[in-house]
Design goal:
The complex is a heterodimer of chains A (114) and B (116).
Chain A (H helix, E strand, L loop, with lengths): L3 E3 L4 E4 L4 E7 L6 E7 L6 E6 L3 E5 L2 E6 L4 E6 L8 E8 L9 E3 L3 E6 L1
Chain B lengths: L4 E3 L2 E4 L5 E6 L6 E7 L5 E8 L2 E4 L8 E4 L6 E5 L8 E8 L10 E2 L3 E5 L1
Parallel strand pairs in B: 2-11
Antiparallel strand pairs in B: 1-3, 3-8, 4-5, 4-9, 5-6, 7-8, 9-10, 9-11
The chains are: A mainly beta (114), B mainly beta (116).
């Protein structure tokens, strides 16, 4: 079993719709959770992070965390063609004051069609 | 503010040769990380520096890989001798020295290494 699992996609959504991405993780000790967006050939770019159960909203993005069920999701509202990218779920399982070692999922490719 | 910069962006070398990758973190970031993504796999952690000290090198594949961060500024990752399975994209990331909750990683664009 992979430590962090994501559906590879592609997830195809029409422009203006909601894209829903899911991520499950195996380590119950995981502390913080990150969503990165990566365009082809570019660096992963942080979208959101969450560490408490529940929802966290930032603009068109909402992250949802359920530690009991060990999943974290990302909703993209009013999807735009520019949202087409690979979305990476990353989990931090270590509590170290100095650092932030991440375990990544394989990423979900999202295609927003005009 | 300049982001994390990596050099070169691409490198093609033959099996058995040596390659050195360079990473310049964001100024003031004590934490520096190397990650790697090989074809079809997830991005995997290689190692973590705090300033010039190696905090965690548990992800380094073998002793053909050597990372340094002399002076606690830029870092180099040397592969010697390179093997075919070393091909992939090598990412560098940096962050401030605070708790993980509010010090996310900032990634560079990566170095695409191809070993033939």
């Amino acid at each position: 079993q992979k430590e962090v699992e994501q559906n590879s996609g592609p997830l195809s959504v029409p422009e203006g719709a909601i894209a829903s991405l899911n991520c499950t993780y195996s380590d119950r000790g995981s502390q913080s959770f990150f969503w990165y967006r990566q365009y082809s050939g570019k660096s992963p770019e942080l979208i959101m992070f969450i560490y408490s159960n529940g929802d966290k909203e930032d603009g068109r993005f909402t992250a949802q965390l359920n530690k009991a069920s060990q999943y974290v999701s990302l909703l993209i509202r009013d999807s735009q063609p520019s949202d087409s990218a690979t979305y990476l779920c990353a989990v931090n399982t270590e509590i170290k004051a100095a650092g932030n070692k991440l375990t990544f999922g394989g990423g979900t490719r999202v295609l927003v069609k005009p | 503010e300049a982001g994390v910069t990596q050099f070169p962006s691409h490198s093609v070398i033959e099996k058995g040769q040596t390659v050195t990758l360079r990473c310049d973190p964001i100024s003031g970031h004590d934490n520096l990380y190397w990650y790697r993504r090989v074809m079809g796999k997830e991005i995997k952690f290689l190692l973590h520096f705090v300033k010039e000290s190696k905090q965690d090198e548990s992800g380094m594949p073998n002793n053909r890989f050597l990372a340094e961060r002399t002076g606690g500024t830029y870092s180099t990752l040397k592969v010697q001798p390179a093997e075919l399975e070393d091909s992939g994209v090598y990412f560098c990331a940096s962050s401030l020295r605070r708790s993980s909750y509010n010090s996310p990683l900032h990634f560079g664009n990566g170095t695409r290494l191809t070993v033939t």
